[in-house]
């Protein structure tokens, strides 16, 4: 693995491990005192945006040689797979969620996603982390670096599963590890198929954006649909039992 890839991984890990510390240090500046009890929340959200932006800038700097050495791209193919990739990722997410709820009886809804939505409502600028910076960094690290390095020694399936599982574990939402693994497999396929990380980045960015916008703007409608779905399952379950 190239040494600059290690720089990126180390920078990302350090950032993740120090988000809490950074939030506390930023809170001591007194810039967020006017928010009262939400002081640490605003400080933490602000620090997360700053930290992710810094790591993204460093990552792009360390990848400058890779970007210069890229081969010619078939634009129409990249556009096609970028768009198809969005639907593939959403479909994988939906199917995995159905398996979790119906086969493993795991409650629908992710605490991780709910927490992120709350932060976006608290500070709308945080959407740049969840929908843009975060997906870009994740695709570079988990697909370009980890999957790409593994794929040099193992076949696609083994490399994709290992990188997808690491991707799932890093999200620390173990009850929904199947959903994250399924999405990771799709993104690995897109990168392997096109040989261009921009494709999986675009699909990941758009998928996250769709999820965030939907759950932020249509939260009440989604909750009503969920309740109606549960009622229908109860009714039909009674007929079939």
UniProtKB/TrEMBL annotation:
<dbReference type="Pfam" id="PF02517">
    <property type="entry name" value="Rce1-like"/>
</dbReference>
<dbReference type="InterPro" id="IPR003675">
    <property type="entry name" value="Rce1/LyrA-like_dom"/>
</dbReference>
<feature type="transmembrane region" description="Helical">
    <location>
        <begin position="119"/>
        <end position="137"/>
    </location>
</feature>
<keyword id="KW-0812">Transmembrane</keyword>
<dbReference type="InterPro" id="IPR052710">
    <property type="entry name" value="CAAX_protease"/>
</dbReference>
<keyword id="KW-1133">Transmembrane helix</keyword>
<dbReference type="GO" id="GO:0080120">
    <property type="term" value="P:CAAX-box protein maturation"/>
</dbReference>
<keyword id="KW-0472">Membrane</keyword>
<feature type="domain" description="CAAX prenyl protease 2/Lysostaphin resistance protein A-like">
    <location>
        <begin position="124"/>
        <end position="210"/>
    </location>
</feature>
<feature type="transmembrane region" description="Helical">
    <location>
        <begin position="197"/>
        <end position="219"/>
    </location>
</feature>
<feature type="transmembrane region" description="Helical">
    <location>
        <begin position="7"/>
        <end position="28"/>
    </location>
</feature>
<feature type="transmembrane region" description="Helical">
    <location>
        <begin position="75"/>
        <end position="99"/>
    </location>
</feature>
<feature type="transmembrane region" description="Helical">
    <location>
        <begin position="40"/>
        <end position="63"/>
    </location>
</feature>
<dbReference type="GO" id="GO:0004175">
    <property type="term" value="F:endopeptidase activity"/>
</dbReference>
<protein>
    <recommendedName>
        <fullName>CAAX prenyl protease 2/Lysostaphin resistance protein A-like domain-containing protein</fullName>
    </recommendedName>
</protein>
<feature type="transmembrane region" description="Helical">
    <location>
        <begin position="158"/>
        <end position="191"/>
    </location>
</feature>
